[in-house]
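Handout, section 4.2: multi-component inputs.
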Amino acid sequence: MAPLVPTIISNEFNLIIALIAGIGFGFVLEQAGFSSTKKLVGLFYGYDFTVLKVFFTAGVTAMIGVLLFAHMGILDLSMIYINPTFLWSALIGGAIMGVGFIIGGFCPGTSICAAAIGKLDGIAFVLGGALGVLAFAEGYPLWEKIYLAQAWGPVTMYDMLGIPPALFAFILTIVAIAAFYFTSLIENKVNGTPSGVDKNRMTKYASVTVLAFILLTYIAIIPDADKRRDAHIEKQLKSSDFSKAEIPADKLALEIINNYYKINIIDTRSPEAFNTWHLPLAINIPAESMKDRKWDNLWQQKHKVNYFYSDDQVTAQKVYLYAKLSGKADNYILNEPASTFRQMFDQTILPPAGAGKQEMNVYNFRKKAAADMATLVETLKNSTQPVVAKTTKIKGGC
Amino acid sequence: MNAQKYMNPYLAGFLLGLVLLATIYVTGRGLGASGAVKSVVLSTVVEVAPQHAANTPYIKAYHEEHPGNPLKEWLVFEVIGVLIGAFLSGIISDRIGIKLERGSRITGRTRIIAAVIGGALFGFGAQLGRGCTSGAALSGMAVMSFGGIITMMAIFGSAYGVAYFFRKLWLK
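Output:
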């Protein structure tokens, strides 16, 4: 699941990605005419709304894409960078930038584009920008209070409004389209151009708009990949026959003793239950946290077999189904509850005198297996913890 | 000069949106610009005046947060890309050349001074607002960040508010 950095693409290679993303960014900005101040400030005097059109179209496109990817389950929204909100500095900083925009005619990104094609005012703006950064850094103690005030964290618009993300996206898309329409009226009036629109072009715009709303409706109405997977698991829990995936305790004990390096024993109970007692070499993945991305490598690897157990079979079956849907590893469920395994091996009871040979054999086997497992745990004390991928938060912003 | 026409704004916006989406998909973060200026400026101060940098809390904190080579930053590489991308676009559309674009009522000198002042205000504001039109407004909109969107509204609101007073710079 994306984002691909840092799990699939390394942080070093990420710098090459940055270069490629920048080339795309700079190319499109220049093609759109953002290297020209006349086009940029036209927005504020009503004769050219290119900035609004490009900006809003880009924002809405990316926003719908992000929602769609999240809905399809290929992008983890909890991992992407959401600009944190610091109320006062956002508003005051924004207001200062607005004045800078009118006086300077650029914003930082566009000034860099202008500088790249040889515009002297673009170069002057970049140098001015450097002075502004320096001034901020030098006088930092003076505005530190405003800079850090009202820290609300990485809140989103839909959190603030208490509405579903898709609904907010819907509203923003409508706002964008309304803005495109009204600004084109203003543009025509200011420039004195006739308001007739090319019919062919109109059809194209209309179809793209309809497509955007179809996508948004799809995102809003159809349950997302995560919900669909949950529903699938629920259904399978009721209807599936797990007998093929079940392994008896004695067999698992043998697996632990002989093939401990080829298996993962996964305890799906609560951490408290796990800490009180757990199977030898087990790791704890409570059913509630099975979706945590740090476990993804356990589901996706192919060289170790996963064995799940719990106190009630349903919990183990649930995590088993989740693992099966999430990767290609071989997965099995312990036939007995954890407590039974414990009785069989840790609290082995000597059969009453006169017990059959069969019973004595079982007793001896389990006694020896328990001892072997204890030795194994002791030997591997420091090396059995699986390597867990650390979930790091992505840094971003300007 | 036989510069070609600019791209249809909606098409350009759509392509820009795809670049932004791909960036978020791959890296988990959006695009930016002012942050690169910050990296370059602050690491220059550290190089040129290390003593002074050590005494300036903001620069010191930045330097400590970014150990190693301070220019090995995502945004610095991205902005180098922007320079390359814009230059390529300029070549394709025949727009390369030393030029100074200005309103007809002002001199070239005034234009340069205005650009420096505007840049300084933008640079300062982008530090305070934690991002500029790219990092806060555009990338913020893509992930529906509250902070990003109010910064965007503040930028455009304030620009509209003062546009009248600076019309001499731009209009005939």
